[in-house]
Amino acid sequence: MIARLWNYLDLAVAYIRFNLKSQMEYRGAFISQIAAMILNDGVWVAFWVLYFTRFPVLRGWGVEDVMTIWALTASGFGLAHALYGNVIFLPFLIIQGQLDAWMLYPRALLPHMLLGKMNATAWGDALFGYGVYFLLVQPDLIHALMFICLTISCATLFIGFGILAGSLAFFVGNAANLTEQWRISLITFSTYPSILFEGLVKILLFTLIPAGFVTHFPIQVLRHLSLLDGIFTLGGTLGFLLLSIIVFHLGLRRYESGNLTEMRG
Amino acid sequence: MIVAIRKYSWIGWTAIRSNLAYLGEVISRALFLVVILFIFLQLWRVTFSELEATRLGGLTLPQMLWYLALTEAIILSAPRVSHEIDQDVRTGALAIQLIRPLSYPLYRLWTTLGERTVRFLINLGVGVLIVLVLVGPIPLQPMLVLGIPVLALAFVLDFLSYLLIGLAAFWLEETSGIFLIYSRLTMILGGMMMPLELFPDALQAVLRWLPFANIVYGPALMVIAPDLDAFGPLVMRQTIMIMVLSLFAALVYRAALKRIHAHGG
Q1: Which residues of B touch A181 (CB under 8 A)?
Q2: CA nearest A114: which of A151, A74, A163, A152?
Q3: Which of A20, A126, A240, B177 lies in disulfide reach of A32, CB 3.0 to 4.6 Å?
Q4: Quick one: CA torsion of B52, B57, B60, B66, rounded to 10 degrees?
Q5: Is A60 within 8 Å of chain B by CB?
């Protein structure tokens, strides 16, 4: 088991190095995309700074809390899509029958295929997230370590969500638009304070649109260093990942080859 | 002159019909409005209740949500014309456009206006339905028709900015970064998420003289709370900005044309 995990980590490092080299071939475009994404995220945080300048407290939440959820969402999303960039393309790979090429490798299909692409702008999100937390929130050592663990948890959640949403294509055909809307909903809800939502919507935020595992429990963990909230965060994330893997493999039984002939370098 | 007006009006009408053909897709994209307007409602509902306020920035809670429905409709209807111009420049398709008996910038202007009109009306329709469900109707005044000319001027002003971004492809390796920054600045500094009155006082005067607020905030407020005293200065600011940007765009376009090299083929 440990040997297999080690072997997979080796593969992941090799893919990351290869994908980075590929991005660096267009160094100017790569750097400008990262810079643009950092500015893009910065503009949203600027809105919250303006908002809290006018209304200093929102049901007990301050500007630092909102910066923290932005930092968590951006770094979690960034890590997930910088390393597992193919998760965004999953519906297209399924619809166009392009999983064929990935099935030919002597590797587990899903974890291998997800490594296939790197999303350049995701590096901008990751840098922004860590930058905001470490430079603006300025945590002590224990909070900093906790934050890093939580970003890995958020990244895992985004990957799980991406697999689940993308796997819809196995069942409903061209689901790219639906997947995109669903993903945007998760990101949008993940960047607003969870205290804004109550009742049925709150239930949705822990099920259909699992933003609660980004904005609710992690904030409690960082505020109170609460072990229980940490367990809820990790439990929800791993549960979602497990569900997505099951749905992907159920869907895979319905997969039809594209009979596409193509050259792969 | 009349021939030219008929020609470009026909181009605009063709763009409208072309977009109506993909009505389903445009409506499905408007679903995002449901999510974002619901979140905004929660944010402002909590803000109003925390402050025990009946009006913020001169607007009641229902007016605030109607204002946000309008600003979202304006923002979400923005076409990706800068990307299309960028592609025309990079692929050389611009050279083909130049041999047609049309002015390329005017052709793009009318196509964009046609496309944007359809998208705006659909987004507005969906947005109005959502706010009717969420907060009910608000008393609208007949003077809201003043919103029509300022919206038209806002769309022209926005187009000129996108034209300049697209033409930057003659000099830059990548224009998507500038597009992203411009669109985010339009959202935040334009007052998409809150009216200008809620911004810090020192910032308000500056923002009124930037294009962003004259594209989003000014037209949206003119529909929700029409004010004859504000109409004149708004039209004046929009006209001045259109004249300045048109002049600048003409200079940039002229310089850009000198960089075109046709090699046949």
Answers
A1: 28-29, 31-32
A2: A163
A3: B177
A4: -140
A5: no
